[in-house]
Design brief:
Layout lengths: L2 H30 L6 E4 L4 E4 L2 E2 L7 E3 L2 H6 L3 E2 L1 H17 L5 E3 L21 E5 L2 E2 L5 E2 L20 E2 L2 E3 L1 H17 L2 E7 L5 H6 L3 H7 L14 E8 L2
Parallel strand pairs: 4-6
Antiparallel strand pairs: 1-2, 3-5, 7-13, 8-9, 8-11, 10-11, 12-13
Helix pairs in contact: 3-4, 4-6
The structure holds zinc ion.
Length: about 240
């Protein structure tokens, strides 16, 4: 083989290895995790995490916001939070089989400062991207790419619309209720949800929204960035 041919083969090999790492790196890291109990320390803004667990990259009805993010381990949480998130998706796969959910950033396996976020440091916070439907009402994966900051750069209007997509508030309420149920089963509760206050009304008007408003506390303060394309959920130990 010519020198140029060998070089091309080498580059193709590297590219394949990189793609495989992106596709399966997180799964491999999960296989290598031990089952030591997680412990959260400090506060969400200034804390750390012992034995953090990564969320799975994908399931029947959900996927992560970024293969690179999960490869790097930006999807780790306290083990009970992981179990709650996974159980909620499993419940939704039965109750809302056609709905697609995308989760976003959570934190490092050992917690600590998690730029550019101000919190997410002790394994108890998870960002979820809003579920969306198209004009026909069909559930779509929220588009997450490097050029839209993996979904964080998307901007929904005050009606919850973005081009042909709109926020599926029914699916979002169902998700938060399922998450609240699952959290209780794992000795946790939802401490607070941060979501753009002007979008609370349509969420509470959705199917299950009234129940959600009674069960879960939503922050009324405007957050440091507008939380329209994602909702930030903080878990705490059950009282
Ligand atoms: Zn967040």
């Amino acid at each position: 083989m010519s020198q140029a041919g060998k070089r091309l083969l080498f580059i193709a090999g590297l590219l394949l290895a990189w793609l495989a790492l992106l596709r399966w790196g997180n799964d491999l890291a999960i296989l290598l995790e031990d089952d030591a109990t997680s412990r959260s320390h400090g506060t969400p803004a200034d804390g750390w995490l012992e034995n953090g667990k990564r969320l799975p990259s994908r399931g029947d009805n959900f996927r992560a916001y970024s293969s690179l993010g999960t490869l790097l381990g930006r999807n780790a949480v306290h083990g009970s939070v992981r179990d709650s998130v996974v159980d909620a998706y499993a419940a939704l796969a039965a109750s809302h089989p056609a709905t697609r959910y995308v989760y976003a950033e959570t934190g490092w396996p050992s917690g600590g400062r998690f730029r550019p976020h101000r919190t997410h440091s002790n394994g108890l916070a998870v960002d979820f991207h809003v579920p969306v439907v198209d004009i026909e009402g069909t559930s779509r994966w929220l588009p997450t790419y490097p050029w839209n900051q993996w979904g964080y750069g998307l901007e929904f209007d005050s009606e919850g619309r973005l081009g042909a997509l709109r926020i599926d508030y029914d699916a979002m309420a169902a998700h938060l209720l399922a998450l609240d149920d699952a959290a209780r089963n794992h000795g946790l509760r939802l401490e607070v949800v941060i979501f753009d206050p002007p979008l609370h009304a349509p969420l509470f008007a959705a199917k299950g929204g009234a129940r959600l408003r009674d069960r879960v506390r939503f922050s009324q303060r405007p957050a440091w960035v507008r939380h329209d394309e994602h909702y930030h959920v903080v878990f705490a130990a059950a009282r």
